[in-house]
Amino acid sequence: MKVFVSGADGMLGTNIVHQLLSRGFEVKALVHFATKSKTLDQLDIEKIKGNILDLSTYESQLIECDYVIHVAASTALWPGRNRMVTEVNVEGTKLIMQAATKAGIKRFVHIGSASSFAPGTAIEPADETKEYNGWRFKNDYMDSKFTAQQMVLNACKSDGFPGIVVCPTYMIGEYDSAPTSGRLILSLEKGMVPAYSRGAKSYVHTADVATAAVNALEMGRQGEAYIAGGENLTYREFFEKVYNIVGLKFNMIKTPFPLVVVAGFFGSALSRVIGKPPKLSYGMSRMSGMEQYYSSKKAIAELKMPQTPIDKAIKDCLAWMKANDVKI
Hints:
alpha/beta; Rossmann fold; globular; seven-stranded parallel sheet
């Protein structure tokens, strides 16, 4: 069986490609023309350079494939309103869905985001029944991921499109060449993050999400979304884990949340003047204070998603970045 993977050279995409190869699948990997990632080098795959917004660069490649795992997306959070983010995440998904339909793909696994569901609390983590409420943050990344997810699910209901959606929480793991979450972990190791505030996330090993995505080729229900999360931790709990793993004494200071929001406000204002992305924007500061607890019971039951301890995810992330000399 042959699988077409878009966005194949990112952290999740590379984990998915490795999973597919280990199970005997053939892989066609779509990577952007301008990519600098080397995570797919030396792998026995067919690499295609293209652009998710340019159907002519990849449409014919789907003809001989059985499945699609659509990972490609823009994760830019700044500026909050960003037309390109919406085009990549919504229009790009629409185009590859059209190509998949034309090619007669057996199943289309769309990688969404857990942010497309309203977050829950420590007592009641959110599941897939929670309705999206992220519009209030006026962030095109969050809005576009929700819109794309609904487009896939609606097509399943109205046209019988063979889609299924896997929605990761905050991923940590190997092949983080950008880096993304790895940047935070390296910053913590170097003592570059002196303070923390309220807030919590669901942290998940990227390899577990990849397992759920590959399992979704043949498991799970068409037209359904699955939250792919791991351990629900406060920021302090997560930071303490990182400090313990790197052998440092936890010495971070707790900052009142209102001060974080003020810092985000001025960060956004300064960025508009100098034209560079802020380390902390107003929108990101507001989102950071939320309790973002999620339940993955559905993915565990129906997609056989594993639950690797987040300590191992942190260790795997650090080991890979150091072995590959990733800088922040």
